[in-house]
Design goal:
The chain is α/β, with parallel strands linked by helices and 386 residues long. 39% of the residues lie in helices and 14% in strands. The chain folds into two domains: 43-87, no CATH class; 126-319 and 329-368, Spore Coat Polysaccharide Biosynthesis Protein SpsA, Chain A. Strands 1, 2, 3, 4, 6, 8, 10 and 11 form an eight-stranded mixed sheet that branches. Strands 5-9-7 form a three-stranded mixed sheet. It is elongated and about 130 Å long. Bound molecules: 2-acetamido-2-deoxy-beta-D-glucopyranose. One of its GO terms (biological process) is carbohydrate metabolic process.
């Protein structure tokens, strides 16, 4: 019995131990099940902190590195060197202002454009335009550099003769746009004062050449005076390809007239414009210099880029005095001109600046193009084909 009792007790205690062990095991499991996810979370969080700290350290290192590369002093020295090597030994106010702004700010300008804008075609005078509020932030000669951020520079070149009412409307319309686009820009009005037929292409070349004296602009926009932009999101700053900006005009129901059309507004980087030797100087009288320009792109393997017709929309100012010179000599000058890109252009440009006036809204260059002294296609004693 005692033995039985003992056996019973033993069995009982064994059962008890087993039960206890099971309970313990289960508890451990339960506790583990409860604790494990928490530890996992803690673990993940710890890793996260580590990661964040690591990242923060990376960012700090990176910023320090940038700071050392981007010391304003080093930047100013570099920019000065760049300008000097491109021929700017004397420092114009525009250059000084550009270097200071460019080098003291790291962030790129963000345009604050409006989208579709209304076009004010109401008649105005130059004196009224000079009193507009935007003239307060312009510098004499009609240039502007945004103070708070880095931006690209662009020269706007307008071929001009006796269109003051159109020019006034143009300046009133475009200055606020360029300021909103946060461009470093300057407007050059190239005024043909001689009595020879109007020569749009040669005036553009003169404008390019004169603009270079003020600043090595990244970009040049050759702009007819009678075209007013309807959407300010169309940026006047260069992409890699030459661009045709005046894609859709109200006059033509906002459609591109033909695929080769390259008139109205043309935009080039300096390098591309130099590469194609600029415009032809040989088109006296209205028209066809743009077809020549179009062919020059193919000559150097450049592709023309056009923005969408929805954005590159323009209204054309009605011509009050339809003074259009008929071309006197229509021997195949257009076709013939395609053979002489290399001699006819920037390389053969001859002109005389009569006067340069720095107006509050633009740099007015009065120029004599000296038609009589020009060699056709830049070739001395060029003989017209029979
Ligand atoms: C244009 O002139 C008209 C008539 O004088 C005037 O009612 C209108 O407000 C002007 N438009 C703008 C944009 O100034």
């Amino acid at each position: 019995m005692a033995c039985d009792q003992a056996m019973y007790d033993k069995t009982l205690s064994n059962t008890f131990i087993i039960l206890l062990a099971l309970t313990c095991y289960t508890s451990v499991l339960v506790v583990l099940a409860l604790v494990y996810p928490t530890t996992q979370i803690i673990n993940i969080q710890l890793k996260g902190f580590e990661y964040q700290n690591h990242q923060r350290r990376d960012v700090e290192d990176f910023e320090k590195e940038i700071q050392s590369i981007f010391s304003p002093e080093k930047c100013k020295e570099d920019e000065k060197m760049r300008l000097i090597t491109s021929g700017y030994d004397k420092r114009t106010e525009e250059i000084t202002s550009y270097i200071d702004c460019h080098c003291s700010k790291r962030n790129k300008c963000v345009p604050n454009t409006l989208g579709r804008i209304s076009v004010n075609m109401n008649v105005t005078t130059m004196d009224e335009v000079f009193k507009e509020s935007f003239t307060k932030i312009l510098n004499p000669g009609g240039w502007y550099v945004p103070k708070q951020c880095k931006t690209s520079s662009v020269a706007i070149v307008i071929p001009y003769r006796n269109r003051e009412s159109q020019l006034s409307i143009f300046l009133r319309h475009y200055h606020p746009i360029f300021i909103r686009q946060k461009l470093h820009y300057r407007i050059f009005v190239i005024d043909q004062v001689d009595k020879d037929p109007f020569n749009r292409g040669k005036l553009m070349n003169v404008g390019y050449n004169e603009a270079k004296k003020y600043f090595p602009y990244d970009c040049v926009v050759f702009h007819d005076v009678d075209l007013l932009l309807e959407d300010d999101r169309l940026m006047y700053s260069c992409q890699s390809s030459p661009q045709h900006l005046s894609v859709s005009l109200d006059k033509y129901n906002y459609r591109l007239l033909y695929q080769e059309l390259f008139g109205g507004i043309e935009m080039f980087t300096r390098d591309h414009f130099e590469l194609i030797n600029g415009f032809s100087n040989s088109f006296w009288g209205w028209g066809a210099e743009d077809d020549n320009l179009y062919r020059r792109l193919a000559w150097k393997g450049l592709t023309l880029w056009r923005p969408s017709v929805h954005r590159a929309r323009y209204k054309m100012i009605k011509h009050d005095n339809a003074e259009v010179d008929a071309k006197s000599d229509r021997f195949d000058i257009r076709k013939e001109s395609y053979k002489h890109f290399a001699t006819d252009g920037l390389s053969s440009l001859k002109y005389e600046v009569k006067e340069t006036i720095l107006h509050p809204t633009h740099t007015h260059v009065k120029v004599d193009l000296h038609m009589a002294k020009d060699d056709l296609f830049g070739i001395v004693n060029y003989e017209k084909p029979k």
